[in-house]
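CHAIN AND CONFORMATION:

***
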Amino acid sequence: MYFNIQRFSTHDGDGIRTILFLKGCSLACPWCQNPESRSKKQSLMFDERSCLDDCLLCSDVCEGIERTNGKITVNRKVIDESQIMALKNICPTQALSVVGEDGQSDELVNILMKDKPFYQQSKGGVTFSGGEPLMQATLVSEIADKLQQNGVSTAIETCMHVPWKNVEKVAPYIDSWLADLKHTDDGKFLSWAKGSIKRIKDNLKKLDAIASRIVIRVPVVPDFNDTDDELKQIIDFAASLDNCKELHLLPYHTLGINKYRLLDMPYLCSNKPLNNPELLERVQQYASKHTQLNVTVRG
């Protein structure tokens, strides 16, 4: 199950890349910019601003959707998978949209290979993202294997919060690992993201023994990890990995906040982007003592 294929990206690995976004995530980070990726199943997004006043197409095929006094109400609790499928492509203005497509590995490889000339010219390739792509380890390994056989470089964006067997299955077919490390304190990470930092750190240590390139990425989130001590501890851990030479600081932004409204989900983080260049500069200066680790700020 995937939800987007983004072409000509220059922010998710080297060169020009095509990004395959897969659905399903094992974490619940409240700042996630792709909340539509959390569920393994198809998701329903509704933007009432684009809804036609007299249109009844969606309510005619789905009992969980009603129009009352000219306004559409979407009762997500009673809408099952079959009804979501019935809603696909039914809305003429895309006010109501179904997020998620079933895809087979051969079909997706054919799509991804269309941009091979751009990969070759720019030293780019394909990046798997999400959601958490390692939750679909079989699909990723099949696609990545075929891409590598065709001379296409592969990368993966991952939170590493999966069983080790998933990582191990994919590892032979991935050239670059773009791995999130959001904190080092298990208690704080559990309360915010509903996951285990121990699992992530254990996986990163094991990955370090078999991967040739690991890039640690750190979303710097207000009230979560935006202190010198917290970021220094993350840097120290990253520097302990032999095959990690790069760390990217990703200042918190709110570009995905509107998606929460479309999914009828609460947004529980700050409504303002991180604006603390002094913190980022101090952290970069601290990181300079780890001479093997290049720390940069990415917008």
